[in-house]
């Protein structure tokens, strides 16, 4: 029982580290400047 909890905690930490790595990678590779979106809601402009 105690060993299963340890595996669960380690698994959760691995998932968190992978998710954080993906988030950081996407933030660093996102283009800089102005983002223009045209969709059903209209036009939106966002500065990065």
Brief descriptors of the model:
48 residues; alpha+beta; 2 strands; membrane
Question: How would you describe this protein?
Answer:
- Keywords: Membrane, Transmembrane, Transmembrane helix.
- The chain is an alpha+beta fold and 48 residues long.
- 58% of the residues lie in helices and 25% in strands.
- It has a two-stranded antiparallel sheet.
- A hairpin with a 2-residue loop joins strand 1 and strand 2.
- It is elongated, with a radius of gyration of 19 Å.
- The termini are far apart.
- The model has no long low-confidence stretch (mean pLDDT 91).
List the helices and strands and how they pair.
Layout: H1 2-29, E1 34-39, E2 42-47
Antiparallel strand pairs: 1-2
Keywords: Membrane, Transmembrane, Transmembrane helix
Transmembrane segments: 6-25
Strand content: 25-35%
Output the radius of gyration: 19 Å
Order of helices and strands: HEE
Count of helices?
Answer: 1
Short description:
By secondary structure, this protein is an alpha+beta fold. Helices cover 58% and strands 25% of the residues.
């Amino acid at each position: 029982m105690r060993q299963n909890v340890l595996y669960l905690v380690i698994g959760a930490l691995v998932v968190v580290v992978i998710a954080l790595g993906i988030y950081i990678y996407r933030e660093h590779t996102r283009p800089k400047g102005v983002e223009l979106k045209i969709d059903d809601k209209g036009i939106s402009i966002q500065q990065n």
